[in-house]
Design goal:
This protein has 107 residues and is of the alpha/beta class. It is 45% helix and 11% strand. It has 6 helices and 3 strands; from the N terminus they run αααβαβαβα. A 3-stranded parallel β-sheet has the order 1-2-3, sandwiched between helices.
Length: 107
């Protein structure tokens, strides 16, 4: 088993919802529908995907698609909002992201 670097982990985050959302006509503005589409387009299974979000909509969309989620309290939403939405993990600094990904994804 080879330990993955933060760069290798970040490279696995292909198909970011922002890229998918911004490249389409706006019909996927609902996070649940958007993430369902992202899974279909990338071919990822929900247990091999991870939503990193800063608002409750990100977390709710992930949960509705059986995707694990990391709430980031350094974005628009508050830690309380993300916690109440049911984020699997909550981080306060970008430097904590690599560890969160390693904890939640089977990589």
């Amino acid at each position: 088993f080879k330990q993955k670097t933060a760069y290798e982990i970040a490279s696995c985050l292909v198909g970011s919802e922002m890229c998918i959302r911004d490249s389409l006509d706006g019909s996927l503005s609902d996070k649940s529908i958007l993430l369902k589409h992202a899974l279909a387009v990338t071919g990822f299974e929900p247990n091999n995907a991870l939503m990193i979000g800063d608002r409750q909509y990100d977390i709710i969309g992930a949960k509705s698609n059986l995707i694990k989620s990391v709430g980031v309290s350094y974005g628009y939403g508050s830690a309380n909002e993300l916690r109440e939405a049911g984020a699997d993990l909550l981080i306060e600094k970008p430097a904590e992201l690599a560890k969160a990904v390693q904890k939640l994804l089977p990589i």
